[in-house]
Structures are given as structure tokens and as C-alpha cells.
Automatic annotation (TrEMBL):
Residues 292-305 have a biased composition (Acidic residues). Residues 306-317 have a biased composition (Basic and acidic residues). This is Uncharacterized protein. Residues 287-317 are annotated as: Disordered. It comes from the Bacteria.
């Protein structure tokens, strides 16, 4: 009788173990299928995004990239996660971090940094998925790249100094792209009343004059080139982050801005890009308030040098 019960117990254990192994194999197969389909859908999106960002017209670009994002999101539901919708868990990374923290694999400082990074990625993902974002500044670079800066606002650094801070989508930059950052050059314009000759008489008119020039590095304050490591179904072909710019004087009315960077992919050569924005109107939120001092380094230069003109050129060019 004892042997009979032993056989039953062993048989039950074998059944349980067999079931466990089967479930494990099934989970592995499902994960492999999801990974395979996800890679395919991400490649399809990258192709559509590449076409969209190379549009010269800003409105046409925005329509196409939003259409590509919408199609990508639908394809995820239809193709990648149709059998396992619960696998599309946007907070799976945070759960993994908390598990690792409980086991002691990561310390409190690492946990905080990892969760902060995820918060940035989650915010960017929600904005892209929401379809209602619009860049404040957008420009097409070379080498299948494009920069979209959105939500540009005045804020302060840890020392209380005012600055402009904006979030961005940098299309065409991924973790496999080598980037060399260049400069940001901002020319600032003001308006003054002047007597201008008009026909036989002089009349008072508003005249644009160069107020100053600011130079700095184009390297972002924060850049995340692999957001898919936090949200595995994050769209491909894009980096996210935060850029900081100099706040503008209270009397500024327009700016010209140039931003330079170089990219290299695989064994290819280096491709340099120069993004330009000319005579942009300056919103009140980008300027200091009246009475606030513009704290910038002073450099002696002629008005022509500040404006980026060749002093040897004649008025007629």
C-alpha cells in the first residue's frame, strides 16, 4: 500500500513538473513571437518615419509622422499583442526595477535614477501617442535626421538663473548612431524708432537692429537614444530628451538660430547638419521680464559681425 501511494505521489509530481515545463516553454514561445513581430513592426515604422521627416514642408511632415505613429500603434494591437494584450504593459520596466530593488540587486540611488528615466520616457511616449503635439521649432537635417523642440518654456537652473528649457524628439538618432555635437548660435534682434527717409521727407519708423549674440554647445541637457529599453514598444528611429537655451533679453523681438551636429551610422562617413531658423518672433515666455538683467558674457563685436555678415561685403553684396 505504501508503494502504491509512493507511485501516486511521484506520478502527481511528474504531472505538475510536466505542466510547469509546458507553461514555461509556452511563455518562451510567446515572448519570442512577440519579439519577432515587434522587430518587424518597428522596422516598418522606421521606414515610414524616414520618409516623413524628409518632407520639406513642415505641415506635410507633421501630418505624415502622425499618420505613421497612428498606424504603428494600430499595428501593435493587430499584429504584435493580438494574442496577448496583457503583454503590452507600459509599466513593466518599473515593476522590474522594484523587484530588483527588493532583491537588493539595485540600491536606492540606482532605483531613483532608473525610475526617473522611465518617467521621462513615459511622458514622451504619451505625447507621441496622443497625436495632439506640435513642435515649437522643427528643422530637417542631413542624413535622415530631424529635430522637433516642443514645450519650450522659461525656467531656472539649480542656482536660480533663468533659462529656456524644451523637450525634443530627435528623429533619426538611435543608440546605433554616433553623434558629435556642435554649437548653437542665437542672434537677437530688437526694434528701435528711427527717422527714415521716405521720398523727400523723413518719417519715424520701427527699425530692426542687432541686440546681441549668444553661443553655446548644441549638446542636449538630457538625451535618451534607447527609449525602447524602458518601453519595448516605444517607436523606433527617434531619441528623446531635454535641451536648454539662453533666456532672451526683455527688449528682444526676433531671433535667428543655428544648431549644428554631425552623425555617423555603421561604417559610413560623418554627415554634418546645420539647422537654421530665421527671424523667429519671440514670445513673452522666452524673454526676461522688464527690469530683469540679462546675465550674459560681453564680447566686443561690430553689428555686422553679430548679425553674421561679412564686414568686407558692400551693401549690394
Amino acid at each position: 500500500m505504501k508503494n502504491f501511494f509512493s507511485v501516486i505521489i511521484i506520478f502527481v509530481i511528474l504531472l505538475v513538473m510536466g505542466g510547469y515545463v509546458y507553461v514555461q516553454k509556452q511563455d518562451v514561445a510567446q515572448r519570442e513571437e512577440i519579439s519577432k513581430n515587434l522587430s518587424k513592426v518597428r522596422r516598418n515604422f522606421a521606414s515610414r518615419a524616414r520618409d516623413a521627416i524628409n518632407q520639406e514642408d513642415g505641415a506635410e511632415y507633421l501630418r505624415n509622422i502622425k499618420a505613421a505613429l497612428k498606424s504603428y500603434d494600430e499595428e501593435l494591437d493587430r499584429t504584435v499583442y493580438a494574442k496577448n494584450p496583457e503583454a503590452r504593459d507600459i509599466e513593466s520596466y518599473t515593476k522590474l526595477v522594484e523587484e530588483e530593488f527588493e532583491k537588493g540587486s539595485v540600491d536606492e540611488g540606482q532605483r531613483k535614477r532608473m525610475l526617473e528615466r522611465h518617467k521621462i520616457v513615459r511622458k514622451a511616449y504619451d505625447i507621441l501617442k496622443g497625436q495632439d503635439w506640435r513642435p515649437v521649432l522643427t528643422a530637417k537635417g542631413k542624413g535622415d535626421t530631424r529635430l522637433d523642440i516642443y514645450n519650450l518654456q522659461r525656467t531656472t537652473d539649480p542656482n536660480g538663473a533663468p533659462l529656456l528649457q524644451g523637450d525634443f524628439f530627435f528623429w533619426g538618432l538611435e543608440d546605433s548612431t554616433d553623434v558629435s555635437w556642435g554649437d548653437i548660435i542665437t542672434r537677437i534682434w530688437k526694434v528701435e524708432k528711427e527717422m527714415v527717409k521716405e521720398g523727400r521727407k523723413k518719417v519715424e519708423k520701427d527699425v530692426e537692429k542687432v541686440l546681441g549674440r549668444v553661443e553655446g554647445s548644441s549638446e542636449p541637457y538630457i538625451i535618451i537614444t534607447s527609449p525602447h529599453k524602458n518601453i519595448d514598444f516605444f517607436p523606433s528611429f527617434v531619441s528623446i530628451g531635454t535641451i536648454r537655451l539662453a533666456v532672451l533679453p526683455a527688449e528682444s523681438v526676433k531671433i535667428d538660430m543655428e544648431l549644428t551636429y554631425s552623425t555617423r551610422r555603421g561604417g559610413g562617413g560623418e554627415v554634418e547638419s546645420v539647422l537654421k531658423w530665421e527671424k523667429l518672433d519671440v514670445p513673452p515666455g522666452w524673454r526676461l521680464s522688464d527690469g530683469q538683467e540679462w546675465d550674459a558674457d560681453e564680447v566686443e563685436a561690430t553689428e555686422e559681425e553679430i548679425a553674421g555678415k561679412d564686414p568686407n561685403e558692400t551693401e549690394d553684396g
